[in-house]
Amino acid sequence: MRFSGLANFKLMLTDKVFRAAFLNTIFFTLLGTCVQMLMGLVMALLVLCIDRFRTIIRTVYFIPCVISSVAISQIFAQMLAVNPPGVVPAVGSLFGLAPHALLSDPHWALVLVTLIDAYKFAGIYMVIYYAALQSVDAEVLEAALIDGCNWWQQLIYIRVPLIRAVLEVTLVMLVSGCLKGFDVSYVLTGGGPGSSSELVSTYLYKTIFISGNFGYGSAISIFLAVECLVTLLILRRLFGRGDKA
């Protein structure tokens, strides 16, 4: 063994696969965060507006969260499979669409990985948002109703501002989780085709445990940790400015 200094970090700058994985991770984080926050909030509002079978519907929404990522990935892999045709190609054929292997398409692989990952974890944020929305004072909502606010105005100007702190916490949780996303991408596509759905975490795993390059893998792991810390510090600074404003 010999000390390599900063050689592994310099290698990251010229490694095309690492650059692709980094850009994919940024896309995965941005899209995954937006989708999970939106899905969680929409599901929470639906549960809040439903009077009958609320517990059953809430349980159905939460089921993907308790199913393993491997099982979720295999379910969607079979649904998207072309041979034998899964549910998605079969439905598409009814509308005259030719079967297309979406998971093998470099233009669709990362998008599907991101959406499937968001579907799995959106139920967690549904529960958080549901609890936060329930804590909003009913008297405030009644006063707004008397003043002529409709449901949409109550949501935009009363409910969402009152649960802002919860939204900020979940945003931090989502960004941190997406930056470290691994399981769905690795099981569903293995980072392929090529490096189209490769994430920093999956590339880290392959570098250490498949290629056996522990030095370079350690450098990538340090980059991943620093990336998460810097992003969270930026979010904290932004939230701090918002509080001062």
Number of strands: 0
Enumerate the spans where pLDDT stays under 50 for 5 or more consecutive residues: none
Please report the distance between the alpha carbons of the first and last residues. Answer: 54 Å
Q: What is the percentage of strand-forming residues?
A: under 5%
Mean pLDDT: 90
- What is the overall shape? flat
Helices and strands, in order, run as: HHHHHHHHHHHH
In CATH terms, what is the architecture? Orthogonal Bundle
> What is the assigned CATH homologous superfamily?
MetI-like
Count of runs of 4 or more consecutive helical residues: 12
Radius of gyration: 22 Å
At the fold tier of CATH, the topology name is MetI-like fold
Reading off the top of the CATH hierarchy, the class is best stated as: Mainly Alpha
Helix-residue proportion = over 70%
* Main beta sheet: none
Q: How many distinct folded domains? A: 1
Keywords: Cell membrane, Membrane, Transmembrane, Transmembrane helix, Transport
Membrane topology: Multi-pass membrane protein
Subcellular location: Cell membrane
Family: Belongs to the binding-protein-dependent transport system permease family.
